[in-house]
Structures are given as C-alpha cells and as structure tokens.
User: What shape does this take?
Amino acid sequence: MTRRDAIRNCFIIAVGSTLIPACKQETKPVLPLKHLSINGNDEKLISDLCETIIPKTDTPGAKDTYTHLFVLKMLDDMYSKDEQGQFIKGMKAFDKLADKKFDKSFAECSQQQKDELVAMILKDKSVSKDVTDFFETTKKLAIQGYVTSKYYLTNVQEYKLVPGKFKGCIPVAVIKEKGASI
Assistant: This one.
C-alpha cells in the first residue's frame, strides 16, 4: 500500500464516520418537555393516533388543531413519573403491535391499517393491558384537547363566558319582586 492510498483511505473513513450519524435522522419533538422523554418519531405516532381517533372531515381533525401537543403537555405536566413510564411502555408496545400485524410502524401504516388496528384494540380483549391503557389515555386526552381547542370553542360550540344577558345595573329589590332567586 502506498502512502497516497493510506491517506485516501483515512480521508474516506473520516468523512464516512462524520456523515453516518447525520443520516440517522432522529428528530426532536416540536414541544420541549420537562419530564417526558420522547423523540420526534414518538410524537408522530401520537399525532397519527390522535388523527385516527379524531379524523379530518369537513371539520379540522386532531392534527389541524394540534391536539397531540395538548396530549404531550398534559402528560408532561399533570401525570406522575409512574404514569408517564406506563404511557411510554404502552406506546412502545402499541408500536410493536402495529409492527407485528403489518410489518411496519404505526406511523408508516396506511389510514385503513391504522383504523383496523384501533378497531382491534377496542374489540379484542386479548390485547395487552399496556396497549389498552396507552390507547385509552391518548383517546381521553385527545378528546379533551379537541373540545377545548380554539376551533371547537369558536366554530362548533360557541363558548359564552356568561350565559344569557347580564344586567349589572338592576337593583336587588327589583329582582326579588319578579320572583327570581339569587
């Protein structure tokens, strides 16, 4: 081996070892979390599951209202370390179930396959407790996030801070004469 070949091989190895980690493409989550450790792929799984639970029709779906971010923030802020650990364990088991059934991760499945997997979890009693707990927690938080979203409260169920008409200038004596209770 000549000196020129040795230098070239060292250069190729150095460049290759620099580029290989960059090709892995593990993304970071959009929302910085304090207690929950997830990556971008986990966030995509939760986003796709929320969209499967609340799909886009003539109204925006869960992805359009960023419901998955609500789910992650609630898990990060309001759930204990044990509950967060169970959630992560269930999420991994859920993705393994999708991989076992369709030979690909949940995020890579078609919408029909995602619907089929969710229907299987709802109907099949033999699915592990970790998976059902993960699904039920995600479903509960996704629905809560959707019905408290700006879109839902302004377009679907118009939120009124005070129902009816508030008349603050009427004396209490007038209200009592009309038979209203205070």
Summary: Helices lie at 3-23, 40-53, 67-78, 81-102, 111-123, 129-147, 150-156, 172-177. The longest helix spans residues 81-102. The chain is about 65% helix and 0% strand. The two ends are 98 Å apart (CA to CA).
